[in-house]
Amino acid sequence: EKLSNKIAAGEVVERPASVVKELVENAMDANSSKIRVDVSEGGLSSIRVLDNGEGILPEDRETAFFRHATSKIKTDRDLFRIGTLGFRGEALPSIASVAEVTLKTCAGESEGEKITVKGGQITERITAPPRQGTEIVVRDLFYNTPARLKYMRTVYTELGHISDVVNRMALARPDIAFELWSDDRKMLKTAGHNDLLRVLNEVYGRAVVKEMKYVKASSEDFQVTGYIAAPSEARSNRSYMTTILNGRYIKNPALTKAVQTGYATLLPVGRFPIVCLHITMNPLLVDVNVHPSKMEVRLSKERALQELVSEAVKEVWENTRL
Ligand code: ADP
Ligand code: MG
C-alpha cells in the first residue's frame, strides 16, 4: 500500500510544480473563489495552498489520504462526464508519501481540524480554528526519495515551473482570485472578476495586452473565445500558447497546430503567437482519463474543432491587416 503510493507519486509528483498543480486543482474543485499559493525555495522546502472552498467533511478527512479515495466520482458513468479537475484520488496520498503534509480544514458547521501526515502515516489529529475552507502545507518534498531530489534543478527553475502552473490556472479561471507568493515576494495576483483580458494583463503585462485581438467562433459542438497577439522577435515561445478546455488547461498539439495554421499564411514560419483560447464543448466528447497528469485529452470531432480554431484565428489576422 505504501509502496504503491510511492510508485504513483513517481507519476503524479514529478517536481514541486506538480504538487502545486494538484493542490490548486483540488481547491478549484471545492468551488473556491480565492486561492493563495505560498512557496519557499522553489517549493522544495514548503508549499502552502490556502482556499476558501467547501472544506472536507470530518468523515472524509482521513480517507482523503488513501489511494483512490476520491469523493468526486460515485459511479462508472461519472467517468464519462467529468466536471471536476481531479477524479483519480491519487494526488494527496502520493504527495503524502514523499513529503510531510499538514491539512487544516473546516466544512460548514463541522469542527475545524488539523491533520499531519508523514511517510504516509497520520502523526497528529487535533482541533483547529473554524476557518471555512482548506489549507494544505507540504514540507520537505522528496525527503525520503533522494534520487528524485537530486534530479531537481535550481530554485529559480522550479519556481519558473510553479509560476507557469499558477498562471495557467489563473488564465483558465478568471472568475477565481489567485495569488502566488515566493518567499514573501508577490509573483501573481488576479482579481477574480471574470475578465480574461485583466488576467492576461497580470500574466503577460500591458505591452502584450495592448496588441491582443479578440477571437470568437462557434459551431454546433464548440464555442471558442479568447485573445491572440502576433509574435515578435522578443517573444516567440510555444509556452505562450494556452488552451483551456471546459475550464481545464490542456496540452493538445492538434489545437496548437490549428492556431499556427490560422496565421501561417500571413506571418513568418516558426514563430508562435501569444494566445489564450477558451473552448467549451460537451464533456461527453472529451476523454481526460488518458494520462495521470490529466493534461492530455482525447477529443471526439477533433478535426472539426481544429478547423474552427484555424478559421477564427485567420479571420482575426485578416481583419487586422485591413
Ligand atoms: P481527487 O482530486 O482525484 O479526488 P485527491 O487525492 O487530489 O483526489 O484529493 C482527495 C480528496 O480530498 C478529494 O476527493 C477531496 O474530497 C478532498 N480534498 C482535497 N483537497 C481539498 C480541498 N482543497 N478542498 C476540499 N476537498 C479537498
Ligand atoms: Mg485532486
Automatic annotation (TrEMBL):
Keywords, ordered alphabetically: DNA damage, DNA repair, Endonuclease, Hydrolase, Nuclease
Top-level taxon of the source organism: Bacteria
Gene Ontology molecular function: ATP binding; ATP hydrolysis activity; ATP-dependent DNA damage sensor activity; endonuclease activity; mismatched DNA binding
Domain DNA mismatch repair protein S5, residue spans: 200-318
Annotated GO CC locations: mismatch repair complex
GO BP annotation list: mismatch repair
Stated role: This protein is involved in the repair of mismatches in DNA. It is required for dam-dependent methyl-directed DNA mismatch repair. May act as a 'molecular matchmaker', a protein that promotes the formation of a stable complex between two or more DNA-binding proteins in an ATP-dependent manner without itself being part of a final effector complex.
Protein family (similarity comment): Belongs to the DNA mismatch repair MutL/HexB family.
Protein name per its UniProtKB record: DNA mismatch repair protein MutL
The species this protein was found in: Alkalicoccus saliphilus
Gene that encodes the chain: mutL
